[in-house]
Design brief:
Number of strands: 2
Largest sheet: 2 strands, antiparallel
Helix content: 55-70%
Mean pLDDT: 95
Number of domains: 1
Number of helices: 7
């Protein structure tokens, strides 16, 4: 069995696992951040946890790029978009976390690292080798241009939402407050809305099943967590804005 066949089977299984994960996460909130709780085994500091969890995505795709046969301008652009997200998420975002140091279960770190490694392999190997390569003309294709616009919009929304949350705390404050401004006017989790937008844009820009699987996985991970966040806000803040939805303005 060659790598193409293994890749296809892995991709099908990966999509099936995303569906199971989506349903499961509506019953079990991942135990980190405001949903942290005991009973999930040994833990590490959340800053180290974020690095260990997110770095495999940044590194795996670099390996795939190095080993791939296709390294034209389009390949470099795709690599740049991916790393714009993951270099920040793995090596910059953890340093911006404020408040008293929290702990993250190693089980969560391990599952996140596994996901990021597999996801990096699926997208990296397809883009830089198994796809046969994207020509330079792809950068003018309407699918790429639409996908790029959606990706950049999601990227900006995600960063702005994270910055709003960061500004809610000073020094070693560790409590939670109600965020306001931007898309927080309409939804509880614009950071998740933006990240989902990024990878939907990626799926369109790459026009690939590997990219689509990433978008589906992002929804499977973040939509349930947004629902838990929204419920948590309502339970802990009696004055929480009634008009806000969890993730999609005006709908849900």
């Amino acid at each position: 069995m060659n790598e193409q066949a293994i890749f296809r089977y892995l991709l099908v299984g990966w999509l099936a696992l995303a569906a199971v994960t989506y349903v499961t996460l509506f019953f079990v909130a991942a135990p980190y951040g405001r949903h942290a709780r005991k009973g999930w085994g040994p833990a590490v500091g959340n800053k180290l946890g974020w690095v260990l969890m997110e770095a495999p995505a940044a590194l795996t795709i670099l390996v795939c790029f190095a080993l791939g046969q296709h390294k034209n301008i389009t390949a470099w652009v795709f690599l740049g978009l991916w790393e714009a997200h993951y270099l920040h998420r793995a090596f910059i975002y953890p340093l911006t976390l404020r408040g008293t140091a929290r702990r993250m279960p190693l089980s969560v770190v391990g599952m996140g690292a596994f996901f990021n490694g597999v996801n990096g392999y699926l997208n990296g190997r397809y883009l830089f080798d198994l796809s046969g390569g994207y020509p330079a003309a792809w950068l003018c294709d309407p699918r790429f241009l639409v996908g790029l616009a959606v990706f950049v919009s999601g990227f900006v929304i995600n960063r702005q939402a994270d910055l709003t949350l960061r500004r809610l705390r000073t020094g070693n404050e560790s409590g939670y407050r109600i965020p306001y401004g931007g898309l927080y006017r309409w939804i509880s989790c614009p950071n998740y809305f933006g990240e989902i937008g990024e990878w939907i844009g990626w799926a369109i820009a790459t026009w690939s099943v590997a990219g689509l699987s990433f978008a589906i996985w992002t929804i499977a991970n973040l939509a349930p967590r947004a629902w838990f966040h929204h419920r948590w806000y309502r339970e802990h803040f009696p004055d929480y804005p009634a008009e806000r939805k969890a993730l999609i303005p005006g709908l849900w």
